[in-house]
Design a protein that fits this description.
The structure holds 2 protein chains of 2 kinds. Chain A has strands at about 5, 10-15, 20-25, 35-40, 45-50, 55, 60-65, 70-75, 85-90, 95-100, 100-105. In chain A, the strands form 2 sheets. In chain A, strands 2, 4, 5, 6, 9, 10 and 11 form a 7-stranded mixed β-sheet that branches. By secondary structure, chain A is an all-beta fold. In chain A, a hairpin with a 3-residue loop joins strand 5 and strand 6 (about 55). Chain A starts with a strand and ends with a strand. By secondary structure, chain B is mainly beta. The chains are: A mainly beta, B mainly beta. The interface between A and B is medium-sized, with 22 and 21 residues.
Chain lengths: ~110, ~120
């Protein structure tokens, strides 16, 4: 299986800050990466697919970049509603795997 | 907009079989992959299985000996069976739809999740 490693596991930032979360794959996954946002007690919500394509209705302050084994999710100006845990997921291989998550909190 | 809803027991005894159902509404079950995942604080999000509407299946190798996924086209539901449950299977279980071009990719619609506890 492809291992997905996210960093940091948690971060604290101020409203309006630029926040970047990293996701590393154990092997080349080209651009086969999605990002999800999960709020407490809720199901994950698709944010980004194919590394950089925003899902329907996702604000433009979210963006994704990367290729191969290194990927990032950036929130350009952190808003109160962005407080959540973020997960990456690879789908280059048919055994789908997720990163461990990054919890974003307000400083 | 498609909606998914899990149903099933919240408590399962050790060694028993978990049976969960996901009801799909607001969309067709055709031309999509449908899957099950679970989430625990210790292991995070874990994909369990997915199935195409026409019947092809794929299971997580770590669970494949205990898992069966099936689709009932007439009722627009798909199901999960997980045998020989242990406390390690205690988790929130989600059903979800996968987007695909030729292969399954990302999960674009999710059920709300159902907490399943394994305890005697």
């Amino acid at each position: 299986d492809i291992q997905m490693t996210q960093s940091p596991s948690a971060l604290s930032a101020s409203l309006g800050d630029r926040v970047t979360i990293a996701c590393r794959a154990s092997q080349d996954i080209y651009n086969s990466l999605a990002w999800y946002q999960q709020k407490p007690g809720k199901a994950p919500k698709l944010l980004i697919y194919d590394t950089s394509n925003l899902a329907t209705g996702v604000p433009s302050r979210f963006s994704g970049r990367g290729s191969g084994t290194h990927f990032t999710l950036t929130i350009t100006s952190l808003q109160p509603e962005d407080i959540a845990t973020y997960f990456c997921q690879q789908y280059e291989k048919s055994s789908l795997t997720f990163g461990g998550g990054t919890k974003v909190e307000i400083k | 907009q498609v909606q998914l809803q899990e149903s099933g027991p919240g408590l399962v005894r050790p060694s028993e079989t978990l049976s969960l159902t996901c009801t799909v509404s607001g969309g067709s079950i055709n031309n999509f992959y449908w899957g099950w995942l679970r989430q625990t604080p210790a292991k995070g999000l874990e994909w369990i299985a997915y199935m195409y509407h026409s019947g092809s299946t794929k299971y997580n190798p770590s669970l494949s000996s205990r898992v069966t996924i099936s689709i009932d086209m007439s009722t627009i539901r798909f199901s999960l069976k997980l045998t020989s449950m242990t406390p390690a299977d205690t988790a929130v279980y989600f059903c979800a739809r996968l987007q695909s071009v030729t292969v399954p990719t990302y999960f674009d619609s999710w059920g709300q999740g159902i907490m399943v506890t394994v305890s005697s």
